Amino acid sequence: MLFRIEDNKNVDGRHREYEIPFDCLPVLKPQELEKYIAEEVRKEINDSQDRKLLSYSKLLGVCLLKYNEYADNELHINMDYLEGVYGGVYFYYKKEDENLKTGYVPFDLMNGLFGLKKQKYGKKIKLLNFNIDVSDNNLLDEYLKKMTGTGRKKVASPEKDKEILLMQAPKDIVISTYLESVYLLYALDFKYGMNKELHDDLIESIRSIDHNCFRDCGEDERKGLILIIKYLFEKGKCEKKMIRKIMDDSKNDERLPMHYDPILQLHGIIDKYDFKDASNLGECYNSNIASKWIWYCYGKYTEK
Q: What are phi and psi of 247, to 5 degrees?
């Protein structure tokens, strides 16, 4: 599972294309493929003006606390990436007198493309997608210098951000309307944890919410909240260890929120208030039907 914040609230921001039309997919000779990928990675890592790739993190907290300053941009959840499985490149190819076929070649920064038999795929391929783990700064530097002649800018932090790059992501689940509930789940799990009983209770509660509450935003937001609960149950302890520095940076940030927003609430829950005071504040400032159920479930859990 991967996470990304889309800067949709900023009209001057760089808004990415999540689904590339078939006719706009790059057409390349097989021997040009790795050079093309390397150049696109370099553009994204070094913040070039013409960058096009989608940057995701393996850590939810990176997106919530580092790249969503006012908690007002939509959260993307990508389920196509499988942790522990090689990154890869997907493409269409067609040899003479054959139908269009789909090809796949494994890829990582240490080996680049391996197993690409250029003669197997004809003269041209149409690049469909790729996913690349760039979360090792040293490997990334070596790869970019070797393939493009230019390394990573020192300010780039793909290792700290546990960054994965994708070319396109048309199946992302997006949370916007209920994003404050994601911050609430993250804060409560960070402070109190989550056992199997609470996990099941939370999921059942989100499933029980009337469909009219998702009429405007779509049922994908319900699915997204359930995915977040599952992620925190499975990865919450690991994430807590890896996110400490980003959590501290967020807490000490000198931003000036206009109200008791979800980020202030998150730090209040973790560092300042007991459960009762935090839930009372939540009722006043950041309340929706999903958050009410989350507070209720955690209330039962903390009383035990």
A: -60, -45
Coil, helix or strand at residue 81: coil
pLDDT in tens, 254-271: 777 777 899 999 999 999
Is the CB of residue 234 less than 8 Å from the CB of residue 253? Answer: no
Residue 77's nearest CA partner among 269, 232, 209 is: 232
Radius of gyration of the chain (CA): 21
How far apart CA 51 and CA 54 sit, in angstroms, is 9
Long-range contacts of 230-236 (CB under 8 A, 24+ apart): 230/199, 230/203, 231/1, 231/60, 232/60, 232/185, 232/186, 232/189, 232/194, 233/194, 233/196, 233/199, 236/189, 236/190, 236/193, 236/194
Is residue 27 helix, strand or coil? strand
Closest among 169, 174, 172, 173 to 20, alpha carbons compared: 169
Query: Contact, 196 vs 157, CB < 8 A?
Result: no
Q: Note the pLDDT tens digit of each residue in 59-95.
A: 999 999 999 988 889 999 999 877 666 689 999 998 7
Q: Are 132 and 156 in contact (CB under 8 A)?
A: no
Q: What are phi and psi of 157, to 5 degrees?
A: -130, 50
Q: Compute the distance between CA of residue 220 and CA of residue 269 in angstroms, rounded to an integer.
A: 27
Regarding beta strands 74-78 and 112-113, do their DSSP bridges make them parallel or antiparallel, or are they unpaired? unpaired
**Are 286 and 262 spatial neighbours (Cβ–Cβ below 8 Å)?**
yes
118-132 pLDDT per residue, tens: 668 888 999 999 999
Please, which residues have CB within 8 angstroms of residue 123's CB and are 6 or more apart in sequence?
29
The partner residues of 5 in beta bridges, in order of sequence, read: 75
Burial of 73 (0-12, 13-18, 19+ CB in 10 A): buried
Task: Tell me the sheet residues that pair with 129.
Answer: 90
Which of 181, 198, 173 shows the shortest CA–CA distance to 80?
173
